[in-house]
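stuck on this:

***
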Amino acid sequence: MEGSILFLPGDGIGPEVLFEARRVLEALGGIFGHRFEVIEAPIGDGAIKSCGDSLPPETRALAVDVDAVLLGAVGLDVRSADGGDVDAAGGLLDLRQLLGNHANIRPVAVPEALVARSPLRPDRVRGVDLVVVRELLGGIYFGQPRGIEDGVAFDTEIYTEEEIRRISVSAFELARTRRRKVTSIDKANVLESSIFWRRIAEEVSRDYPDIAFSSMLVDNCAMQLIHNPRQFDVLLTSNMFGDILSDEAAVLVGSLGMLPSASVGGDIGLYEPVHGAAPDIAGRGIANPIGAILSVAMMLELAFALPEEADAVRAAVNRVLGDGYRTADLRDDGGRTPVSTARMGELIVAALDKVGASGWAGTAGAAGGPRRRAC
């Protein structure tokens, strides 16, 4: 098959991890006989420097004319452009709105090879396999009014019935492909928006009698994620709660650098590692590219309907972890020296080649390097 991908390296460690993700994609194309056209464009802090806009018009036009968007990381600073402040991270929020991606899917699974690396006891994390389904286009990140005036700061949490209903449906539909359990997270003992959230989620649950459903307060969920994470299958969350809880859940695996994500719901999906730009380690070659590589696996499965290829990428990652290789972010247990970002990418490509040699074959690879677009 053939497909087109908008490649947005972004800021900080984004270009480093996305380069390794592209290498894996190219290797996979060669094994399975797929051809992907990769088009590179600016976003975030670099786009502000070169274009004066964190999501330039050229990038916007490309984003709605490809099969999928692959992003590294966004957001280093707030810069002045044409006399006004421009937030680099705002480009990502604008991109999600442009693509209509209301559902952010964040899987958290602890590979057996990393059970001993988790800061939690092995009996707590072994077998953890949950997904955070985060509402992405509403809530306090977008609500108006917001601002700082006369010594007062204010943000507004707003959710419509339609927004809650559609993200709830996404969570229940996903649960049907998994262990058939949805836990909706709210703060209904305090917030009106959460009371409304709980009411609509409960209404949607009646359309899914085959799915076990419950609601849980967000502070209890934060505790339960550490105390008994294996109880969870699909977590249904608002924008802010999902942002916070999925980062907490990264502790179960041992590093935020391990987690992929997919933002879906529109015609074109956005795939990116959960971590941010991490400017403190940018350029040092120590960032973990596995979150970006596993985001490629999600893209293959969801955007291109290639589940076998997605599984091959995941199998290659697990093989490398099983062989004891780690980047510096994963807790040291007295084993071998951590490998670099590039070396981890090389190892996963080599493992993917071994998977291919076991029975998969192809002739066409990914379409060379990315085609670059400037402002």
Remarks:
- Residues 360-370 have pLDDT under 50 and may be disordered.
- The CA atoms of residues 39 and 371 lie 4 Å apart.
- DSSP finds twelve helices and 15 strands in the chain.
